[in-house]
Amino acid sequence: MRKIKFAAVAAFVFISNMAFSQDEDSVMIKKISDEVLFNGTAYSNLRVLCKTVGQRLSGSAGMYKGEAWGVKTLKEAGAENVRLQECMVPHWVRGKKEEAGFRTAKKNGDPVFNVLSIGNATGTGDKGVLAKIIEVKNFDELNQRKDEVKGKIVFFNYPFNKTLLRGAYGDAVRYRSGGASAAARYGALAVIVRSVTAATDNNPHTGALRYNDSFPKIPAAAISTIDAARLSNYIKTGYKNADFYLRTNCVMLADTVGHNVIGEIKGSEFPDEVITIGGHLDSWDPAEGANDDGAGMVQSIEVLRVLKAIGYKPKRTIRIVLFANEENGGRGGAKYADDAKLQKEKHIMAMESDGGSEYPRGFGCGMTKEQFAKVAPWAKYFTPYDADKFSFSEGGGEGADIGPLQTNFKTAQFGLSTTGQRYFNFHHSAIDVFENVNEQELHLGAAVMAAMVYLVDKYGL
Amino acid sequence: MRKIKFAAVAAFVFISNMAFSQDEDSVMIKKISDEVLFNGTAYSNLRVLCKTVGQRLSGSAGMYKGEAWGVKTLKEAGAENVRLQECMVPHWVRGKKEEAGFRTAKKNGDPVFNVLSIGNATGTGDKGVLAKIIEVKNFDELNQRKDEVKGKIVFFNYPFNKTLLRGAYGDAVRYRSGGASAAARYGALAVIVRSVTAATDNNPHTGALRYNDSFPKIPAAAISTIDAARLSNYIKTGYKNADFYLRTNCVMLADTVGHNVIGEIKGSEFPDEVITIGGHLDSWDPAEGANDDGAGMVQSIEVLRVLKAIGYKPKRTIRIVLFANEENGGRGGAKYADDAKLQKEKHIMAMESDGGSEYPRGFGCGMTKEQFAKVAPWAKYFTPYDADKFSFSEGGGEGADIGPLQTNFKTAQFGLSTTGQRYFNFHHSAIDVFENVNEQELHLGAAVMAAMVYLVDKYGL
Question: How far apart are the first and last CA of chain A?
């Protein structure tokens, strides 16, 4: 391309709001955006997090290093009252590097599949599980073929439905989170789950499962989309009674101590009214958790930094929270809300960024109709940044970590919404690394988060 | 992140249009989108282009290989009447690998800068140019310091203004395209230009310059943003009178023969009414031209493929054009429009994709007010795909290749608009490769292009 038109940003919707676009708030929001895009520290903070801390699985040494990074980074951003809020977290460990061999009558040279235990799962132990494998497309097929399942390994080969766009993950993740218990109900010994990702590659993706206590807790492992196609092909082409060997060494230890990391700016007029902005500190272990959710943390910290940098004095208390244990327990979010209730705090708004570092498109708005009637007209301020898609959900939660505040206080919720089509290529896998984050997109997300915080702080909700 | 709400796609704007969303056209557009997202061939076609053809600079062997790829790929997609339309193209060649050394009194161990000649530039020849270097921030500073320029190399160090979002490229590219003649006017011997990119990295970015015939044609080379900062630092810290040595071996040869590659589906009711969809075949030479503009070509071909795949019979003639020589001449677009005039064709609409492979956000609409009044209400069909930002420009061109059709016929223009914040990291540099294209984003772009073509074909304009 040689030329880009200057006017390209002047979208149709924007034109219709032109009359309003030069008011005091749009000027302030431009100031916020310019400061983040010129001088933002989110990207450089993320580099430090990814390259000096790395993975931050709950209970791991990485989690504690991450907490120390959080304290330091919040202080550097100018936060006051930086503190750790203790909470107990699950302590699941992967153990030794696991592996699985697909065996046709235990001959040598059998194909090997790169497996990755699903989080919270029980392991097979050193001996592993050797059993016949049965492939099912979905839960319906599992239920229809329940009599064939006993004593076998069930392979859930449910594809990521790209046509659902932002709904594809929710649709497919049911097999990772619930597949083990669904299969155990019919006597399966273990499950293999096709990775929940849009990518066609060799990376297995982990993530949490939840056992149903009514059934045996059986091992569960993810395989990549390419391996899922290979395995399906083997089963379809003459190895219907093939054995599969799975070995995983993971184990759930006793709960251990973790922390939410908190810093704030005290409000000048209404210090008792709290606005919480956060991302989660823990990550899965195969990589650096750059998109999930390093991005959300550094964007949240940037909200505080930019408000100070432009000299804005918030009326209300702006509190940044780096939540513990979002991935496999949600203990940090629950603790934060419970403690707020104990302290009789007043939480008027909470915002979470946990959808990756991509180009922002708007906000999920979980609140009352009356609150949304106030918020909806603000979309015009976000149109120049393309972040004007506000989706309303009456009384809904807008993230795993801030959801409990809705339950406890009816706190208005904002979840940053991103274009999100690349996110699940990286998510919970070995390629969720700093290099898969774009600086400008990350900073645009922080800018629109700060803009919304500014509006809510100024006008209340 | 653990959970994504299924409802997240139901944006506020979308909700307000829900009543209309199940009509025949939205059903057809969903069918188009599903076909592209499930079975699209744009991504696999792009892989073949990038990995078996590579760079396609006008006049190069790669250009001819690209033309052959285009013919084959259009035929495979089901195009009729696939043909080459001859046009003369400039034949600029880079010559041997160029280099520049920054010399402090010609001592050994001087720092080396990785330079890349700007396209269409004259070379220094084997001897190179050795001269004192002067840094200017912009044209204003150049004009103020015009008396210092004679006999020197001018270094334009104008940064990419990220706060302009989609306008940043147009703002900064003036120094690449016009810097050489601006400096030659005051007697400069050569220019060095900071690369036009948002990235902070070591990749120099090329692109075209245009000489003003009133002044000497002097050599011009790009350096990376990191090298620009290094060079600026050297000049500022005590080497004010430093020499800079530049050597480039490029040369502009006589025009040679190139081709637009064309294929179509004949209209069933109004075969004489032509709808043109295209991207450009040529690319710069440092890499594969994956985003610029391999993406636009494979998306355009996909428009034709998907209409056939879902069994839609267009009323009007749908013509795909892979334009020659967009980058350093625009000869293909001019030839296509001139030939159409000669043949007295009727061109009702033209669409171009030349903004990279990223997530689509809408269309630039260059047309009459009356035409836009018909197009604007269609935004509701694009909201589920986030591509509902329609920016209107009365009688405007929406791309270098389709612009001449506006001039000749007042043909309504559509330019695919993308989020576009990553594009200029890759653009015209060694990293514009297949690996920097996301399949789902590329396919979403093709899907919304096909949807707009369907609407215009059905209702006319």
Answer: 45
The pairs formed by B161-164 with CB atoms below 8 angstroms and a separation of 24 or more are B162/A37, B162/A38, B162/A440, B162/A443, B162/B198, B163/A33, B163/A34, B163/A37, B163/A38
Q: Is residue A322 within 8 Å of A261, Cβ to Cβ?
A: yes
Q: What is the pLDDT of residue B240?
A: 62
Q: How many CA atoms lie within 13 A of A181 on its CB side?
A: 12
A386 touches chain B (CB under 8 A): yes
pLDDT by residue (tens digit) across B344-400? 999 999 999 999 999 999 999 999 999 999 999 999 999 999 999 999 999 999 999
In order of B52, B109, B228, B239, B240, the CA distances from B105 in angstroms are 46, 11, 20, 10, 12
C-alpha span between B100 and B115 (Å, rounded): 6
Tokens coding B47? 């892989």
> What pLDDT is recorded for position A95?
86
Identity of the residue in A14, A33, A391 whose CB atom sits nearest the CB atom of B7: A391
Tally C-beta pairs within 8 A across A and B.
Answer: 180
**What was the pLDDT predicted at A1?**
57
Of A460, A455, A457, A329, nearest to A29 by C-alpha is A455
Phi, psi of A186 (to 5 degrees): -105, 15
Partner A, chain B 183-222, Cβ-Cβ below 8 Å: 198, 200, 207-208
Put simply, whether A369 touches B (Cβ < 8 Å) is no
Whether the bond into A293 is cis, omega within 30 of 0? yes
Listed by number, the residues of chain A in 240-299 with a beta carbon closer than 8 Å to a beta carbon of chain B are 292-293
Exposed e or buried b for every residue in B383-420, given b needs 16+ CB within 10 A?
bbbbbbbbbbbeebbbbbbbbbbbebbebbbbbbbbbb
Question: Binning pLDDT at 50, 70 and 90, where does residue A20 land?
Answer: very low
Tracing tokens 């956000």 back to the chain, one arrives at B361
Band of the pLDDT at B451, cuts 50, 70, 90?
Answer: very high
What is the pLDDT, as a whole number, of residue A10?
34
What percent of chain B has pLDDT above 70?
91
* Residue B417 or B244, more confident: B417
The identity of residue A77, as a single letter, is A
Average pLDDT over residues A230-243: 81
What does the block give as tokens for B80?
């009729």
Provide the residue type at A381 as one letter.
Answer: Y
Instruction: Count the Cβ atoms, other than its own, within 10 Å of residue B202.
Output: 14
Which amino acid, one-letter code, is at A286?
P
Return phi, psi of residue B391, to 5°: -105, 125
User: What per-residue confidence (pLDDT) applies to A32?
Assistant: 98
- List pLDDT tens digits, range B432-449: 999 999 999 999 999 999
Confidence of residue A113 (pLDDT cuts 50, 70, 90): confident
**Which alpha helices (DSSP H) does A292-438 contain, by range?**
295-309, 331-342, 369-375, 379-382, 403-409, 423-426
Q: What angle do CA B167, A418, B389 make, to 5 degrees?
A: 50
Tokens standing for A122? 């029980």
Measured CA to CA, the distance from residue A171 to residue B10 in angstroms comes to 16
ipTM above 0.85, yes or no: yes
Q: What is the pTM of this model?
A: 0.94
Does residue B68 have a pLDDT over 60? Answer: yes
Q: Does A7 touch chain B (CB under 8 A)?
A: yes
Write down the pLDDT at residue B242.
Answer: 77
Please give the Cα distance from B21 to A388 (Å, whole number): 20
For every residue of A249-305, DSSP letters joined together read --EEEEEEEEEEEEEEE--SSEEEEEEEEEEES---SSS--IIIIIHHHHHHHHHHH
